[in-house]
Amino acid sequence: MHSAALELARELVNLPQEAVDPLAVLSLNDGQRRILSGILEKDRARLGEEPDAMLAECCRRLETERLRRRDRELSRLIAEAEKGGDQAARNDLLREKQEISRRLKAGLT
């Protein structure tokens, strides 16, 4: 699990309940804020007030987003390797992209 995502999830779980807007307390970029806001609002009913379940779900979604960003980056790097004729780099990047695609499809982030 990505350590930054885990730390962020721990911060969310450990915020005091009286915090008016817990997301305002954290230093998040807009993308992180949208992800976490969605998790907290949509999943509160499903997960209840179980901090461990909320932490696990938050971490899973953050890791999924990280993998999606890396997948997009790999597409760009593969195109560059092909353009430059670097077959070894292209093959390595393709293997990584396939592994990320497999993890995303399986939901095993």
Structural account:
- The protein is mainly alpha-helical.
- The chain has one domain.
- The protein contains five helices and no strands.
- The protein has helices at 3-13, 22-25, 30-47, 51-84, 87-106.
- Helix 3 crosses helix 4 (51-84).
Concise description?
This protein has 109 residues and is mostly helical. It is 80% helix and 0% strand.
Provide tags for this entry.
elongated, 109 residues, 5 helices, mainly alpha, 0% strand
- Domain tally: 1
Q: Over the alpha carbons, how many angstroms does the gyration radius reach? A: 17 Å
Sequence stretches where pLDDT stays below 50 over 5 or more residues:
none
Number of strands: 0
Fold blueprint:
Elements: H1 3-13, H2 22-25, H3 30-47, H4 51-84, H5 87-106
